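Entry:
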Amino acid sequence: MMRNIIIGAVALLLFIGCGGSRVGTISDEPVKTSGNKPSWVKGDKTFWLDDDRMHFRVVVDNESDLSFAQRGLDGQAYSALINAVKVRAGMEYDEAVKGAKYATNSIGQVRQSVINAMGDVKFSDMIKSNEYWEQFQKDEGAKGVSYFYTLWGVYSISDNEFARAKEQAWTKASDDASRTQDKEAKEILDEAKTRFLGKER
């Protein structure tokens, strides 16, 4: 009798375990999309340049409502922009100071001050140029299934806007170096200014 009870309990647990193992499972492929998946969704670039504009990608995930996801995308776009301009400014700074005869630590500190200043600049001409979404299905067990969206968008600013931001950031970093009487930082900034800004001053 006891043996039959134990066997029955084990069988029940196995049944529940097998039946419940799919709860929370997400479909491998989207069940619906907004169209063919664009190449910019698959890429891993933080930003790219085209048509005198700097483009960057924004993504939101696990949103149950598409219209809410679209609002969330717009809400995250400015933060993504700041991250993108910081990355680009850092790359251009590295190029501008290449070969400079200063301590690595000093060059790094100036780099950080320029990047921080880029994050303080206000951008006004950001536009959204593209959007793509995928809908996925999630197994909810006895409740059936639920759906959620992953949404990607492409936004951009003009190269002129980025150039203006660089100039503001460089000026702020230079003013800070003068205010704190950091002679070496000021020298680094003065020497690399033309190369960083891309024009004579």
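DSSP finds six helices and five strands in the chain.
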